[in-house]
Amino acid sequence: MPPDMCHKHSLCIGSSSDKNDSLVSPYLQCNPPLALAPMVGLSHSALRILILELGGIGLFFSEMLSVQRLPFENETVSPFLCRTQEETPFFYQIFAGPDQDIVPAVERLHLLNAQGIDLNLGCPAPALRKLGAGSFTPPDVAQQTVRSLRAVTHLPISAKIRLGAQLDEKRLLRFCQMLEAEGVDLLTVHGRLQGEKFCRRPRWDWIGKVKKTVKIPVIANGGIFSVNDARNCLEQSGADGLMIGRGAVCRPWLFANIAKEVYNFNISTEHNVKNIYFRFIELLQDRFLPERCLGRLKQFTHYYSSNFSFGHHLATGVQNCRSVVEAAEIAAKFFETVKGEGND
Question: 318 lies in which domain range?
């Protein structure tokens, strides 16, 4: 769908490739322009489906995937490749170190019917520092990786970045222009520096500098936990859409709230925090092997418990559990005694 045919509140992503044998439409329409951020151990299929059921999401990303390990993952049991047809449009996020061959990974993503490929150039995790990947990717390596990726895929390519190691406007904008020139179709900018923790407010205005410089769509990411955050971020950045990370784990209904209040979608925002928690457990058990569920439930609970005044009791109780059944029993007792947003 050409950009001028897109819904006024949607985000259109077009592949810059001139190939005609595309597995997907040359343009992906994301409506509303709200994406779930790639988060290790969190943005798996269970959370994606939960948010999809609550409504308001328009674009999905996988957890980050190593280009070296990806070709050997079994999609029937892998928690990283597990995905339903309803999770669409869907981008698989990959990371690659210098001199790592991306071709086998891309070929595998084609077989998985990927609708887009996202290159991780923004993660500051120590493991990626050692590899020289994520936010530690040197600009020349990033350029070669995007160039190689563009040469072997007809799919839309996105890249997720931070503002850099230090505040350097010229360097940042030059880097973004390079990504666009090499064939990136969508840019997601996290508004913090490489070494900044989440407690630091993101610089949404710096995302605006990128938006004014490139012609491709820009998604703003970082620090979005409420409808007001979404409005302020869009106002300061001028971004084409939003990517929500930890805020979506804390409040899976946040997408619906933003879709309704910011983008004027006719969507229900009613929710029950107890029912949502137990629905998440159901989805975990439906999607993953038993040994894969408990750790992911503990990670989710760490964030979700922030909805309650005494949520630390829930988080601590679940953290000490040895089974999902035990965790569910503790959660049931917790929800009997406390009230949270939307808890009847």
Answer: 273-337
Residue 223 assigned to a binding site: yes
For residue 149, what are its two tokens?
């990726």
Residue 260 region by backbone torsions, left for phi larger than 0, else alpha for psi between -120 and 50, else beta: alpha
Residues 164 and 308 in one domain: no
Is 340 labelled as part of a ligand binding site?
no
Residue 268 lies in a domain: no
Arithmetic mean of pLDDT, 270-285: 97
47: which 2 tokens?
Answer: 């959370």
Whether residue 25 is found in the same domain as residue 151: yes
Last-in-domain residue among 226, 261, 296: 261
Q: Note if the pTM is more than 0.85.
A: yes
27-30/11-14 β-pairing: antiparallel
* Number of structural domains in the chain: 2
**End position of a domain, from candidates 261, 295, 313:** 261
pLDDT digits (tens, 9 = 90+) for 64-110: 999 999 999 988 888 899 899 999 999 999 999 888 999 999 999 99
For CA atoms 262, 264, 265, 271, the dihedral sign is positive
3-state secondary structure of 75: coil
Q: Give DSSP secondary structure letters for 261-330.
A: HTT---------HHHHHHHHHHHHHHHS-HHHHHHHHHHHHHHHGGGSTTHHHHHHHHHT-SSHHHHHHH
| Annotated binding-site residue? 190 | yes
CA atoms of 193 and 133, how far apart (whole Å): 16
Active site residue 250: no
Q: List the catalytic residue out of 82, 123, 176, 250.
A: 123
